[in-house]
Design goal:
219 residues, alpha+beta, Tumour Suppressor Smad4, 2 domains, 5-stranded mixed sheet, 16 strands
């Protein structure tokens, strides 16, 4: 179901605005299917029994396909990253670092053919991957900084809502992961429908500040 949803999105990309940039031989949907196979071939078991999925992918295509694709390269990379994120979440896999897909050209490949290299890669910062996804779809990478949330203009996430406290909550890195703390707000902070004072965030946690909702993604 997840894979079909992403394949449909990629097909719309190919058939829509960017249609002229795809050769008849190169099939982006086939790339997404091959990426899923590479996840299964390259996943491993971590020291704590976690199922680790590869998160860094190089997609090599022919020089002619690359030249045609250059203007659609970034949106296609983003859709392929969504494939990896959604499929791995569905299967219960986690990542060592941020998800990255890089489409590159390779001289010895024929038009319409491609090759994928997948690997597990930890972010150079040493921080676990993690982002807050805002209602408008904007992603805020957390890293090793303190993310402040509230009505104050200088908050990392500024919420213009009188029901939200000036200093509502914060997210910061601890040894156990990213810790969300309510800062004594008037109306409280909810995670997955339950009021919390502190909570170690896990993938796809739904965070609520009144009617304002944020999603945590561990990738």
């Amino acid at each position: 179901m997840v894979i079909k949803k992403v394949e449909n999105k990629i097909e719309k990309l190919v058939e829509g605005t960017f249609a002229k940039f795809f050769s008849s031989e190169l099939k982006p949907v086939e790339i997404s299917r091959k990426i899923v196979r590479e996840i299964e071939l390259n996943r491993s078991i971590g020291v704590h029994g976690d199922h680790l999925a590869p998160n860094d992918f190089d997609v090599a295509i022919s020089e002619s396909d690359y030249s045609n694709l250059i203007k659609a390269k970034e949106p296609l990379e983003q859709d392929l990253e969504e494939t990896i994120r959604d499929y791995s979440y569905q299967e219960g896999y986690i990542f060592l670092g941020s998800i990255n897909v890089s489409i590159k050209k390779e001289d010895n490949l024929r038009a319409g053919t491609f090759r994928i290299d997948a690997r597990l890669k930890q972010d150079e910062s040493g921080c676990p991957p993690g982002a807050l996804v805002l209602p408008d779809g904007k992603r805020i990478q957390i890293g090793n900084r303190v993310i402040t949330i509230g009505r104050l203009q200088d908050s990392t996430v500024c919420i213009d809502d009188p029901s939200i406290s000036r200093n509502q909550a914060e997210v910061l890195l601890r040894e156990t992961g990213y810790l969300l703390s309510d800062l004594g707000s008037t109306n409280g902070t909810l995670v997955n429908g339950r009021r919390i004072s502190q909570h170690v965030l896990t993938d796809h946690d739904q965070i609520e500040f009144g009617s304002y909702r944020i999603r945590f993604e561990a990738s």
